[in-house]
Amino acid sequence: MKTLTCLAAASLVSSFALGCASKATDTSSSMPLKSLSKNDPVYGYVEAMRKDLSRGKVEIITDVMRLNSEESKVFWPIYQDYESELFDLGDKRLELIRQFGADYQAHSLDDTKAITLADGFFQFEAAQLDLLKKYHAIIAKELSPLHAAQFLQIEHRVGTVTDLLIASEVPLIDNKSGRGE
Fold it and tell me: Is residue 109 within 8 Å of residue 179, measured between CB atoms?
């Protein structure tokens, strides 16, 4: 049941990403989350989805890692820092999806835009891996290598499901997507 909560939240996050991609031509919704007003409906929706996903991950972490009270006092502040950085990365991913959605809908994908999107994807993937390495090392040092490995497994599983949900909804580039064909 707890895993289903997390999967449902991940599904909502992927649905949100696609919703933003379909609105990518609206300049008011193509800004990073941090630049949106807290009164903006997009901001509220992203925050709600992130809270749902976080709640599901917290349940999984609690069940798997079984931290005692002393370990919890050390782990959760570290995790909150990690999650904040992860959300910043998520904003960058959202921007890539929005840009792809705008270009896809306008049939304006060309070689230059394809290179830019691919470079952005590689940068996102590298930054995400660097973030995991950074917090794996911190948790290994502050708690234990075992807890760091558990953290890594949980993040990998949740991330894989989220990636799959997003990828299953983002259309593949075809010849009609670009060059106005």
Answer: yes
3-state secondary structure of 109: strand
* Helix (H) or strand (E) segment spanning residue 54: helix 41-65
The answer to whether the beta carbons of residues 124 and 89 sit under 8 Å apart is yes
Cα separation of 23 and 27, whole Å? 9
Which token pair is 63? 């069940």
Low-confidence ranges of the chain (pLDDT < 70): 1-55, 176-181
Q: How many CA atoms lie within 13 A of 98 on its CB side?
A: 20
For helices 69-105 and 111-142, the axis angle rounded to 10 degrees is 180
Side chain identity, residue 78: I
pLDDT digits (tens, 9 = 90+) for 28-80: 333 344 444 556 555 565 566 656 666 678 888 998 999 999 999 999 999 99
Distance CA 48, CA 32 (A): 16
CA dist 41 and 79 (Å) reads 27
Directed axis angle between helix 69-105 and helix 2-22, to 10°? 30
- Quick one: DSSP state of residue 31? S
Closest by CA to 172, choosing from 119, 94, 114, is 114
